[in-house]
Amino acid sequence: EGVSDVTSSSATLSGSVSSTGGLPTTVAVCYGPADGGTNAGGWSNVVTLGVVAEGAFSNTVTGLASNTVYHYRCWASNAAGVAWATTSAVFATLSGPLIHHVSLIGGHVSPFATWTTAATNIQAAIDAAAAGEVVLVTNGVYFGPGNRDLSFNGKGIELRSCNGATATVLNCGRQRAFRAVSAEPIGALVEGFSFTNAFVSHAGDWSHDGTILIREASIEFRNCIFVENEVRSDYVTSSTEILSAASTGTVPRSVVVRGCLFQNNRIGGGGWTGIGGGGGYVVANGQNGWTSTNTVLLVENCTIVSNQFYSSQPAGGYVSGVQCAIDGARVVNSIVADNSPPRAPVGWSNDDSIGVHMRRGRISHSVVQGGWFTNELWIVVGSAVHSNGVAFVDAASGNYKLSWPSICVDGGSNATWMTGASDLAGMPRCQQNT
Predict the structure, then answer these.
(1) What does the alpha-carbon distance between residue 208 and residue 253 come to, in Å, rounded to a whole number?
(2) Fewer CB near the last or first residue (10 Å), C or N of the chain?
(3) 3-class secondary-structure state, position 314
(4) Percent of the chain with pLDDT over 90
(5) Do 36 and 74 form a contact (C-beta atoms < 8 A)?
(6) How far apart are CA 102 and CA 89, in angstroms?
(7) b/e for 401-426, b at 16 or more Cβ within 10 A?
């Protein structure tokens, strides 16, 4: 008997049946913030475990409040009567991170500790949060000041939605969506949002910009949707992308894009001179020309489809710059398909590319469509590259899930975090073993 595996929101409650008298015996666990004694109606929670045998039993309860004292007591019942444990046991949940709430109908009373006092814009809750704390956003379409060009301002906090990206939309009103430019540490997280209608134009010489701008910082975007955003390069040597990461400092940085969808975005790439030029990408790791020396960019379990590249080079006879889906990233378990064909200036050497719709990176266990000068379909599974046998459920309707008998099914690379995880559709991340 006793309590084990206590966290800020769960605990495993145990007991034992000393004797059943040979009769089928039902056991229940009662728990709550108040001791209900031997009256089941006095307990706020009663969990019936069904018929159990003699010996030990346990049950894990979830949804507990953090930093709270709880009582629990067990009873057993059979045809001979009801027997309660001799005494109630007491345990306390661990302290959890302080949660700052955001709701369109909140009271907007800082520090936004309840749904009643929730902030009505996201940046206000971010500003109220300290390192290690959580900003939790409920359903709605968020727009206007405080819901675009968001920034953690150097803090390692988590920005999460309650019910995922399809229920929580950030309409950026043709402005930037998010920036992490203040040395945000590993552990900074944005999870479960749709970013739409963001726009950035950039005319910096030999530099990059994006609707998601990450410079000298570490952050993870998880289970987010980026749809119908636009970036445009307005100078011959400038480059733009939907998500732009880079670090040229001495501190190593980690940027992770995991379980995200990039679809129907528009990317206007820069021009090209005799010695080089700009470009346009969906996701890129670059700054100051092509250099990003200290950021590791991981694109994992992502789908990058139906994005459109267009030429935005200025007047003066310049040709279009480099345009492709991914630049300078490690790509794992991802699908890149049906985007505009990649472009490269005539006569430009692509010796540093790997021959698919990306340059300067590593790719494994992924489907990537479009080489530099072809529109072939490449499947990279481990070290093998294939050019046939891919099957999607319904690509014409935008459903790029793999379907049987695609050779890519069961061709993914499992990671520890995938156990029990869900995809953007709420389905198990791992199916058919991978």
Answers:
(1) 17
(2) N
(3) coil
(4) 55
(5) no
(6) 36
(7) bbeeebbbbebbeeeeebeebebbee
DSSP state at residue 287:
B
Q: Which amino acid is at 402?
A: L
CB 282, CB 334: distance < 8 Å: no
Cα-based distances in Å from 99 to 6, 217, 376: 19, 23, 48
Cα 57 from Cα 100, distance rounded (Å): 37
- Residue 164 has which token pair? 């995922």
Nearest to 231 by CA among 259, 257, 260, 197: 197
Q: Per-residue confidence at 259, pLDDT binned at 50, 70, 90?
A: very high
Rounded CA separation 365/360 (Å): 17
Quick: pLDDT tens for 340-355: 877 776 555 443 343 3
Q: If you count DSSP H runs as helices and E runs as strands, how many of each does the chain have, helices first?
A: 1, 43
CB within 8 Å of 419: residues ≥ 6 apart? 430
CA distance 55 to 279: 68
Closest CA to 300 of 418, 425, 184, 397: 418
Phi first, then psi, for residue 42 (nearest 5°) are -85, -5
Residue range 390-417, pLDDT digits in tens: 677 887 777 877 787 666 777 677 777 6
For 261-302, write each residue's pLDDT tens digit. 999 999 998 887 777 778 889 998 877 655 556 788 999 999
Phi, psi of 395 (to 5 degrees): -60, -35
| Cβ(227)–Cβ(197) below 8 Å | no
Determine phi and psi for 416, rounding to 5 degrees.
-60, -40
Instruction: Look at phi and psi of residue 187 and say left if phi exceeds 0, alpha if psi is from -120 to 50, else beta.
Output: left
> Alpha-carbon distance 81 to 123, whole Å?
58
pTM score over 0.85: no
Name the DSSP class of 428: B
- How large is the C-alpha radius of gyration of the chain? 27
